[in-house]
Write a structure and sequence with these properties.
Helix content of chain A: over 70%
Number of strands of chain B: 13
Number of strands of chain A: 2
CATH topology of the largest domain in chain B: D-Maltodextrin-Binding Protein, domain 2
CATH architecture of the largest domain in chain A: Orthogonal Bundle
Structural class of chain B: alpha+beta
Strand order of the largest sheet of chain A: 1-2
Distance between the termini of chain A: 38 Å
Shape of chain B: globular
Largest sheet of chain A: 2 strands, antiparallel
Radius of gyration of chain A: 24 Å
Oligomer: heterotrimer
Helix content of chain B: 25-40%
Number of helices of chain B: 18
Shape of chain A: flat
Largest interface: A-C, 106 and 106 residues
Chains: A mainly alpha (302), B alpha+beta (469), C mainly alpha (291)
CATH superfamily of the largest domain in chain B: Periplasmic binding protein-like II
Strand content of chain B: 5-15%
Distance between the termini of chain B: 49 Å
Largest sheet of chain B: 7 strands, mixed
Number of helices of chain A: 12
Chain lengths: 302, 469, 291
């Protein structure tokens, strides 16, 4: 009885510690969010300086989005580019993580390599895109190198072919974010008690075994985190393709992502259609994240 | 919150007080503008527009712009401006505040729109007094009450007689009111590579070259000859776009419907043919590396379309080895007249500095001496016919980049010939989206119909009130 | 080390295969390092070139315009030192807010049992799924109404509620922060507030360092919201100033200055990163945590 009351008195601290988050969240995110959803039922946009609406239109905005059929296309584009970037990114991160924590490899200059991998993330996406334009333009150094090496017969226009644009987007995303992922994983690996590795080695486990039997399972919470946040970040992919294609998602919108599409509606302050699109995005993200959760949870049971 | 409300009330009552105080003795003074008012705050009477009260007693002049170009013009050429720091200055006892928002990501217009819409509720010293616009989106502001007609400021038509007509077309609202003025004219010419002209056409004399580019048919034929010698007619397909879009026979939007003009379709047809024939080697955007490569002889580009500023400041004239550096460009009128660029000064409705704004506009856009000074110091092509014609006749205005040719007469003629009566508030979006959509067609990634459908889709996204079909 | 070698002798890995793997590892690492550092080299090269030279396209060799570009930039009207200070101020406070309060929130969920705990956790995760662009316009209207225009507050304070940072902290606690430790602290008579600040926060150092870097960099490079919130020149952050430089008129447009400005804006963030990366890279041992 006495113990229980003590637990209760501790647990009120749970609420206390939640206060800052909840207050700030309600103020700065909940209000805008509620107005976003509310707006999705209205015709509400700006025509030049004239405000049109808000006029209540029910679910008309939702119907517009469903009937014009663009959403699946942009979802597909987004997922394709995300997967093209994420697969190499996670493989590379795990590989590097494994190498860095593998005692048998005894890599030198680890600090140097660990430090360097995150550096690309420090460059602004817009600056990065500027460099990419310069390097991959028809008259740029990549093309002249390729032509000289006779890999290309003539200069290749990277920006006007579907798969080259998608690859560049994926490459840039991978480059900017693999260091981030690796750091997350390494921080997780550092949290693993070194005694576990020592014990495993004493028991004669190989590096591969240690990785699969100790590192990966203990990393699981962090891995789930990486998966979920990458998925969400991927679905929200925006700045790289936006800047690289100058907002067009060309060729023929094959590299247009969901948020780029949403951004088109922000130009006219179209709170109505934009709000409805946001609700769709929210549902799509929710379903996919749930799948990832379920997938990882079921693995746990096995 | 309270303090702000109080501030608004105070300033409102102050203005009311001043109006009644000054209004009574001046009751029979003309209600319209006092054209002689040149000094800020010198006149107590507020020039009365039909429905708006234009006050003239403000102590703060708020200027909204996207870079410091206009700020430098005011600083260097407006008599009485004293700089305090990078974003403040003074004219007499009026403080000038500069609000610079970069145009990236449409941030300038977003910020301007939000502030203009709150203008009525803002305290007098927080209201926008002057804002700047570019031609592409000028009508968005001109057709609204947020912009004051210059006649309300006390600027008479007679004051503006020396300006190029097109610079006023751009700023004229549907009901015929002129709402903004510019100190610049930006007529363009066809800038050609003399070396290529000699090699292919046999002469680099502007009159001879003009014969080869006199209209679009001969332009295309010349492109064929250029291709045979390894030259790209223009650097990218978008180079010629503005020449076509400046010469349309109707507006982009008519009765709420998007209409693609025949002249624009002619650009599509010509560009596609030239890309397919290899006469233009790139479909990239302007300002990219593929566009700039023609500034150098290795780039093998025959011509660019551009105004004076392009050739003076953007074509690498100070880089050894560039065509401009060697004076290797020539200028000729080209197939059609056009303009590119320019900044217009607008007075915001609700300003309390009408007299000062009028004076700034007059000094910078109609005072011939000041404008000649701008030509000399900033190399602008100024919006003043006598000044430019004077300069055109003088050898000292010959351009080194043109190998000593003085193209000003050509620019003058171009400026006279520019006709911008077919502008619409949607031009920026339509022109941008159209070029972007057509790139897909030129690149062979879409049929013409698909590319046009893409354009229409993009337009309706941008302007939900329009119909494209 | 000695222990490792003894242990390895008993492993099935032969010396040769370790050797091969090591060579491969080094090759891959060197290649990756090259790809990562290459961009900084290009930025450096470009900031040594004049605007006219830059119109020629890329060359792999530096030119002599570095100092001239820098002098032009400093002599220009942009308050670049104010910008540096503003960026540092905003990014540092954002990082502090985001990490400290997210750790606190995560700790609340991790260490305590209370009604609706699960629901709150799920709710925060759902919050994470809302794209930031979605609420940006509503956010701007809100701060306009709150009269927080042209202020740093709307850029810093919302970081207190960073669901992604919270989620990471929570996951990190799941794998490394045993509740027994908290119990032990209670028995020792520590208050809950004291336990959190004196025991939990220090234990979370690697995670905090990681998220501090991420938040710092994200805030440092943020353009969209600051560009719409900040209007006074001396209050602007570096990305806005870069954009301003890029929208300069043709008379003043100078890519050389743009590049040196970008380089200038990257330097501080590299230094901050190197300072914080000690915690990630340098093998912080988790003193109190065993098993």
């Amino acid at each position: 009885m006495k113990k229980k009351s003590k637990v209760v008195s501790y647990n009120k601290w749970g609420y206390i510690f939640l206060i800052p988050f909840v207050v700030i969240y309600l103020l700065f995110q909940m209000i805008p969010l509620v107005s976003t959803i509310y707006n999705s039922f209205f015709e509400n946009y700006r025509s030049g300086l004239k405000q049109i609406g808000p006029n209540f239109v029910g679910i008309e905005n939702y119907i517009t989005i469903i009937t014009n059929g663009d959403l699946p296309t942009y979802l597909k584009n987004t997922l394709i580019m995300w997967i093209m970037g994420f697969v190499p990114q996670i493989v590379l991160s795990l590989l590097l993580g494994a190498w860095f924590t593998d005692p048998s490899l005894r890599l030198k200059a680890q600090g140097f390599f660990k430090t360097i991998i995150y550096l690309p993330n420090l460059i602004m996406a817009s600056a990065f895109a500027m460099l990419f334009f310069t390097l991959f333009s028809i008259s740029g150094p990549i093309n002249s190198m390729m032509v000289q090496a006779e890999i290309f017969k003539e200069a290749y226009d990277f920006m006007s072919h579907v798969w080259s644009v998608r690859s560049l987007v994926a490459f840039m995303n991978c480059l900017m974010w693999f260091g981030n992922t690796t750091i997350l994983l390494m921080a997780g690996m550092l949290g693993i008690d070194p005694a576990l590795f020592e014990a495993a080695q004493v028991d004669g486990a190989t590096a591969t075994q240690i990785f699969y039997k100790i590192t990966l399972p203990l990393l699981k919470p962090i891995l789930i985190y990486v998966m979920i946040t990458s998925l969400i970040g991927g679905l929200q992919m925006f700045d790289v393709p936006q800047i690289l294609t100058n907002g067009t998602g060309d060729p023929m919108r094959s590299s247009m992502t969901l948020i780029m599409y949403l951004n088109k509606h922000l130009y006219s302050k179209n709170y109505g259609l934009g709000g409805a699109l946001s609700v769709f995005m929210f549902i799509i993200t929710g379903i996919l994240s749930l799948l990832v959760f379920k997938f990882t949870a079921s693995e746990e049971k096995n | 919150m309270k303090k702000r409300v109080l501030g608004v009330l105070l300033s409102a009552t102050m203005i009311a007080g001043m109006l009644s105080a000054c209004g009574a003795p001046k009751a029979d003074a003309p209600a319209t503008t006092d054209a002689t008012a040149t000094e800020a705050g010198a006149e107590g009477a507020a020039p009365d527009a039909a429905q708006t009260v234009v006050a003239d007693d403000g102590k703060v002049l708020n200027v909204y712009c996207w870079n410091d170009e206009f700020q430098r013009r005011v600083k260097d050429h407006y008599p009485g401006y004293t700089e305090v720091d990078a974003t403040t200055g003074t004219i007499g006892d009026v403080t000038v505040k500069w609000f610079i928002t970069p145009s990236d990501n449409n941030a300038y217009q977003n910020n301007l729109d939000e502030t203009l819409l709150k203008q009525a509720d803002a305290a007098a010293d927080d209201k926008i007094d002057i804002f700047l616009v570019e031609a592409d989106y000028a009508l968005k502001y001109v057709d609204e009450d947020v912009t004051l007609p210059v006649s309300d400021l006390g600027i008479a038509d007679a004051d503006l007689a020396n300006q190029y007509k097109y610079t006023q077309d751009v700023m004229t609202s549907q009901d015929g009111k002129l709402k903004g003025l510019s100190w610049q004219g930006c007529p363009g010419v066809l800038i050609y590579n003399r070396e290529a002209a000699k090699e292919v056409l046999g002469s680099d004399d502007p009159a001879e070259v003009q014969k080869a580019v006199a209209d679009w048919d001969t332009f295309s034929k010349t492109a064929e000859q250029m291709k045979a010698k390894g030259y790209s007619m223009t650097a990218t397909t978008n180079d010629a776009y503005r020449v076509f879009s400046n010469n349309v026979s109707g507006k982009w939007v008519q009765d709420g419907k998007v209409v693609i003009d025949d002249n624009i379709m002619k650009w599509v047809e010509m560009s596609k043919a030239m890309v397919d024939a290899g006469q233009v080697r790139s479909t990239a955007d302007l300002w990219g590396d593929d566009w700039k490569k023609g500034f150098f002889p290795d780039g093998k580009v025959f011509c660019y379309f551009g105004p004076a500023w392009l050739i003076n400041f953007c074509m690498a004239a100070d880089e050894a080895g560039s065509i401009a550096n060697a004076g290797g460009w020539g200028a000729t009128e080209g197939p059609q007249g056009f303009f590119w660029g320019g900044t217009w000064i607008c007075a915001a409705n609700g300003t309390d500095n009408a007299g000062l704004i009028a004076d700034i506009m007059k000094q910078l856009t109609t005072n011939k001496d000041i404008m000649l000074d701008i030509v000399a110091k900033d190399s602008d092509f100024v919006n003043n016919k006598p000044a430019m014609e004077e300069a055109a006749a003088k050898d000292e205005y010959a351009f080194d980049v043109f190998g000593g040719q003085n193209p000003l007469a050509m620019f003058c003629k171009g400026a006279e010939n520019c006709d911008l009566s077919n502008q619409s508030p949607y031009d920026q979006g339509c022109n941008e989206e159209f070029q972007k959509a057509m790139k897909n067609y030129f690149d062979g990634n879409a049929t013409l119909d698909d590319a046009l459908a893409m354009f229409k889709k993009a337009i309706v996204e941008k302007y939900p009130e329009l119909k494209a079909e | 080390m000695e222990e490792n070698r003894i242990a390895m002798a008993g492993q099935s890995d032969t010396g040769a295969s370790v050797h091969v793997r090591r060579v491969i590892a080094y090759l891959v690492l060197i290649l990756i390092s090259f790809i990562c550092l290459f961009w900084f080299y290009v930025l450096f090269i470009n900031s040594t070139r004049s605007n006219a030279e830059l119109t020629r396209g890329f060359t792999p060799f530096p030119s002599g315009n570095l100092l001239i570009n820098w002098k032009n930039l400093v002599a220009g009207t942009l308050p670049i030192f104010n910008g540096l200070f503003n960026s540092l101020f905003v990014a540092t406070l954002t990082a502090v807010m985001a990490t400290y309060f997210s750790t606190m929130t995560a700790y609340a969920i991790h260490a305590y049992d209370f009604k609706f705990k699960k629901q709150i956790f799920t709710f925060i995760l759902m919050v994470m799924m809302i794209p930031t662009q979605v609420t940006a316009l509503g956010f701007l209207q809100l701060i306009g109404k709150m009269k927080l225009d042209d202020s740093f507050i709307p850029l810093i304070v919302p970081a207190v509620a960073s669901p992604a940072v919270f989620f990471y902290m929570k996951q990190y606690m799941d794998s490394t922060l045993p509740l027994s430790l908290v119990e032990a602290a209670r028995i020792d008579g520590s208050t809950e507030w004291g336990t959190f600040n004196k025991i939990v926060v220090p234990l979370m150092k690697p995670a905090i360092a990681v998220q501090a870097i991420f938040s710092f960099v994200q805030s440092w490079n943020n353009y969209f919201v600051p560009a719409l919130v900040l209007h006074t020149d001396t209050k602007k952050t570096l990305p806005i100033l870069i954009a301003q430089l890029r929208s300069a008129d043709w008379l003043k447009f100078d890519m050389g200055q743009v590049y040196i400005m970008i380089t200038y804006s990257i330097f501080p963030v590299i230094i901050v990163y190197l300072l914080l990366s000690r915690y990630i890279v340098g093998g912080v041992t988790l003193g109190g945590v065993k098993g």
